Amino acid sequence: MKKKSSAAMAMAATAGMSVRNVLWLWWKLLVLVSLTICVLAFLKLQNYSLSDSELSSSTSSISSRSRAVYYTGNPKVAFLFLVRRNLPLDFLWGNFFENADPGNFSIYVHSEPGFVFDESTTRSTFFYNRQLTNSIKVAWGESSMIQAEKLLLGAALDDPANQRFVLLSDSCVPLYNFSFIYNYLMASPRSFVDSFLDKKDVRYNPRMSPYIPMSKWRKGSQWITLIRKHAEVVADDDAVFPVFKMFCKRRPPLEASKGKNNIKLQKQHNCIPDEHYVQTLLAIHGFEGELERRTITYTEWNESVTNMEKKGWHPITFSYADAGPVQIKRIKDIRNVYYESEYRTEWCRNNSTLAPCFLIARKFSGGAAMRLLSEGIVSPFDASSIMNLTP
Fold first, then answer.
1. Residue ranges of the alpha helices (H) in the chain?
2. CB–CB of 295/337 below 8 Å?
């Protein structure tokens, strides 16, 4: 009986040890799997920008470029045109550059991939072959808009003479001649970036934290003018942009054909990247004290309501009738901008001196641009001289 009892106890002890060993092995396996998942998730987040084929072909390559730190020659203004395809107001800009010293400016155009500016596509020789060769397909309200801006800045930064960088759309027009705009920009050591807090804004996505703190979230106009230091920060950024690309996306528009599905679609988080990216990036880097927190590009807004849209603001397109001397003088006479969300009046200054707020305006039709020329807004010009020129 004693031997049987001892054997039974030994078997029970062995069985107990086996169960404990199995449980211990399973526990170690569970911990190992959990750690592996955490490590992989961390590496994926850290390397998101490197795994993105489009980003690696643009911002990552830009980051590795070596650029001149100091430049003592004649400074230039880089005009960066972000266009859909061609440049419909090329005749006006051609006249604008015609009266400028070629050593004071450079031109870069981001158009659709494969589009070439030559004698068959533009009426101005100033735009011949000024398109980027690494352009991408751009969609409004998507991160591709930011990526195109970064490509333009990256290309312009390759020329150390470029010291000011002005982003323009295909509907922008100059309100002054080249000499005035050049002197205005060169006189200021600051960038002109419309940047403000919008307390009513719900575009910030908490999932952006901690890479983009809510305290640094800003909103403003896409149309920026940067000094070289800030242009380099935007062009070389490969940390904040991937977070924008992942979490700041435009909500799909309302479509009557989708019926009740619109309700589900409208529950998605809504964010327009190009209205936040540069402002937020510069705030994260602590550069807000180096900005004139306003844009030099005027846009006239109209509040409208349609059956399929919520109340919103939309830019007005200037027609021939809207581009007369009285209307243009009204824009040029503006000396301050009021930001309702911050209860702030931004008095327009240029190197601490009160100055006109706007040097450029949008959105102008071809007829409106033609009137600017015929009225001599840019410079004296005979409009009939280009009537027979077709791109």
1. 2-46, 48-51, 53-56, 59-63, 90-98, 143-157, 178-187, 228-236, 240-247, 261-265, 277-284, 325-332, 366-374
2. no
User: What does the block give as tokens for 191?
Assistant: 């960038």
Integer CA distances (angstroms), 119 to 135, 173, 256, in order: 20, 22, 43
Q: Is the pTM of the predicted complex or chain greater than 0.85?
A: no
Transcribe 141-190 into DSSP letters.
TSHHHHHHHHHHHHHHHTSTTEEEEEEEETT-EESS-HHHHHHHHHH-SS
Tally the C-alpha atoms within 13 A of residue 276's C-alpha that lie toward its C-beta: 30
Q: Which two tokens stand for residue 12?
A: 């029970």
The distance of Cα 180 from the centroid of its chain, to the nearest Å, equals 26
Query: What is the tens place of the pLDDT at every residue in 244-262?
Result: 999 998 866 555 555 555 4
CA angle 387, 390, 391 (to 5 degrees): 145
Which pLDDT tens digit goes with each residue over 129-155?
Answer: 999 999 999 998 899 999 999 999 999
